[in-house]
Amino acid sequence: MAQPEYQNLIIPALRPLYAGLSTFAETVLRVVAGLALVTHGWPKITDPFGAVGMVESLGFVPGTIWSPLLAGTEFFGGILLAIGLLTRPAAFATMIVLLVTVYFHWVVQAEGYSGAEKSILWAAMMFFFVIRGGNAQSVDAKIGRQF
Questions:
Q1: Which DSSP symbol is given to 135?
Q2: What is the pTM of this model?
Q3: Is the peptide bond before 89 cis (omega within 30 degrees of 0)?
């Protein structure tokens, strides 16, 4: 993808720095987000039926199907996001999970914005990668295909 143009910088001398680090910064965000999802999903993937009660309380019945899907989405979606393979579908699936957690914290747990804030930020990050896809430093780019 083309680098954004920085025509009206307050300090024009920083243009090469921003342009040079743009792809790197996006890659860092993708890798850190993916690895954080893997870490968050690890306990779920080791006990894929551990969230049955929670997902059923949200109306996702039967929980024996939805709980492993939740585990897989977080764990394997995180791996795919971190390496940048099938970036858009992985980010989309994870974004849906995160939007459900927004509902869970905001409405079901009645925690409002303060309870849902992290999920909102995470969902926004995933939306970024749904739209943007993998960058030049992704497996998607290396194989020359994106969803």
A1: -
A2: 0.88
A3: no
Q: Quick one: tokens of 47?
A: 């006990």
Q: Which distant-in-sequence residues (6+ apart) come within 8 Å of 37 by Cβ?
A: 74, 75, 77, 78, 81, 82, 94
For 136, the token pair is: 């030049």
Question: Which tokens hold the place of 59?
Answer: 């109306």
Predicted pLDDT at 146: 83
pLDDT in tens, 40-88: 999 999 999 999 998 998 899 999 999 999 999 999 999 999 999 999 9
Q: How far apart are CA 78 and CA 54, in angstroms?
A: 21
Give, in degrees to the nearest 5, the angle at Cα 90 between 113 and 95. 15
Dihedral sign for Cα 71, 136, 32, 12, please.
negative
